[in-house]
Design brief:
mainly beta, cell shape, Immunoglobulin-like, 27 strands, TAT_signal, acyltransferase, 4 helices, transferase, L,D-transpeptidase catalytic domain-like, peptidoglycan synthesis, 3 domains
Length: 389
């Protein structure tokens, strides 16, 4: 097929030949061809492109879908999901780019139907489909504290995964935390399934905290992807700190830095390090009006105690033990828990918040750093070393 330049040249040559023939005269009719060869219709100048491209596979679910036109203006763009529903999106000011505003689903097919008009006023169209990535496994992510919780000043923010993750640095980059006032803190990995944020010092009282784990669509490693983003908004309450020096047989409660209560207690048996109440800074993990205690090693099962505040996953609680009243305030003889008289245990229970710090000193037993709540059992420098960044 001749291009436009070839057609014009041929027309000029034909015309020149006709002039020469006329000038030379000669017999015959002199009846050559009349006019130029017909021109081929030009193609539209506009060009439509899409990202992901038509027929693409394993497209990222977080990358916005774009449809672009060069040398023209978009007249309509529709992107529909497998259910036939349109994906939300918008045009830029000069309608040369359409960009989606929805996050895409895993393992889904999306179909384009786009049209544009070129600067030559000729229409062009784009049609076709692409598919998004299908994770080898989808991992459930949770965040704690939950929405609208009021917590103590030692409460960490904890993000947990239903299976092991590998890309810890990428995960940590996707964790966002905002506070109503300046708080220095750091994320730290406690295991391949848990990353916590704790402040350098206790949270300031009445701090508002917003935490977002924007993990959907991020490769968590090993073909695993998060099922969904998780977020939380919670409030740090008043500052209450419990301090126990085990040889003193006393549990002191400080609020706003001032001592507000002092309760006689019995702590873990001093003569058996395995029964000591461990040293370290713990937090109130749960509040249970009734708790059942079992320890076959020491010969007791199904023991019901009231006003129980768990302080570790190692088995330690602060709880009522009226049966041990003769020792409370005088002798340490428990199996590691902090025993209080009934009325004192109830009063403390009512005053406690999940996340209140409990500082224990004077014991021979170190804190159990294999717990999933051990954020305050290590130094600040050691905690920062647990970050993947």
């Amino acid at each position: 097929m001749m291009d436009r330049r070839s057609v014009v040249k041929a027309a000029l040559v034909t015309g020149a030949g006709a002039v020469v023939a006329a000038c030379t005269g000669g017999g015959g009719s002199g009846g050559g061809t009349d006019g130029a060869a017909p021109a081929t219709e030009s193609r539209p100048v506009a060009k439509l492109t899409a990202q992901p491209a038509v027929d693409a596979h394993d497209a990222a679910v977080l990358q916005p879908v774009t449809v672009r036109v060069a040398d023209g203006r978009l007249t309509d763009v529709k992107l529909t999901n497998a259910d036939g529903h349109a994906v939300e999106g918008s045009f830029n000011t000069d309608r040369t780019v359409w960009t989606s505003s929805e996050v895409l689903g895993y393992g889904k097919t999306y179909t384009y139907a786009a049209s544009a008009t070129g600067t030559d006023q000729k229409p062009v169209q784009l049609a076709g489909s692409f598919t998004t990535l299908t994770p080898a496994r989808q991992i459930r992510v949770t965040i704690n504290p939950g929405d609208d919780a009021e917590v103590g000043v030692g409460m960490p923010v904890s993000v947990k995964f239903s299976s092991d993750v590998q890309n810890k640095a990428e995960i940590e980059k996707a964790l966002m935390l905002e506070t109503s006032g300046h708080v220095e803190g750091s994320w730290g990995w406690l295991s391949d399934r848990q990353v916590d944020f704790r402040p350098k010092e206790y949270w300031p009282a009445n701090t508002q905290v917003n935490a977002d784990a924007k993990l959907y669509g991020i490769d968590l490693g090993g073909g695993g992807y998060a099922r969904a983003d998780v977020t939380t908004k919670f409030t740090v309450g008043r500052s209450q700190v419990v301090k126990i020096h085990t040889p003193d047989h006393v549990m002191n409660v400080y609020r706003g830095g001032a001592k507000v209560n002092s309760y006689p207690c019995s702590n873990g048996l001093d003569s058996d390090v395995n029964r000591n109440t461990p040293n370290g800074t713990f937090i109130i993990m749960t509040r249970e009006p009734h708790a059942i205690f079992d320890n076959a090693r020491y010969g007791y099962t199904n023991v019901n105690k009231k006003w129980a505040c768990r302080i570790s996953n190692h088995g330690e609680f602060i709880h009522e033990n009226q049966d041990n009243a003769a020792a409370i305030g005088k002798v340490n003889n428990s199996h590691g828990c902090v025993n209080l008289l009934d009325a004192d245990a109830k009063e403390f229970f009512d005053s406690a918040l999940i996340g209140d710090p409990v500082e224990i000193t004077g014991s021979r037993l170190a804190g159990p750093v294999n717990s999933d709540v051990m954020d305050w059992l290590v130094s600040w420098s050691a905690w920062r070393g647990k970050s993947a960044l």
